[in-house]
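dumping this here so i dont lose it
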């Protein structure tokens, strides 16, 4: 029945700031951007390595949401990387602070968390 994850939707409090973060800091590729006048909302479709993965939205005055990885709801969004130190260094050069590297006790793989401009927890997971 279910074949794959189609996309992840994110609502930004500051659309331009989040657009810059996801495109310039994380390097996701814009596919299409539309303004939906009836909703006073921007929508930006983003791809990673040519695969559509994120819808970035703006809405007037969106309410805040708890964002710690242990909060109810979506826990976090994880991105696979080949070299964790290199990925963290790339983020830090762009002003994004990452948590200390940890090791997954079940897989032995290393990972680190960081946040988007709205505090959404994001993860780098070394493959």
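and the seq i came up w/
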């Amino acid at each position: 029945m279910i074949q794959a994850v189609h996309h992840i939707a994110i609502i930004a409090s500051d659309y331009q700031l989040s657009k810059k973060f996801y495109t310039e800091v994380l390097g996701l590729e814009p596919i299409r951007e539309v303004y939906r006048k009836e909703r006073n909302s921007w929508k930006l479709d983003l791809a990673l390595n040519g695969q559509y993965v994120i819808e970035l939205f703006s809405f007037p005055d969106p309410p805040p949401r708890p964002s710690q990885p242990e909060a109810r709801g979506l826990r976090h969004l994880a991105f696979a990387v080949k070299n964790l130190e290199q990925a963290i260094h790339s983020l830090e050069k762009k002003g994004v602070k990452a948590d200390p590297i940890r090791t997954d006790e079940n897989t032995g793989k290393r990972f680190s968390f960081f946040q988007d401009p709205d505090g959404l927890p994001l993860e780098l997971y070394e493959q």
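The radius of gyration is 15 Å.
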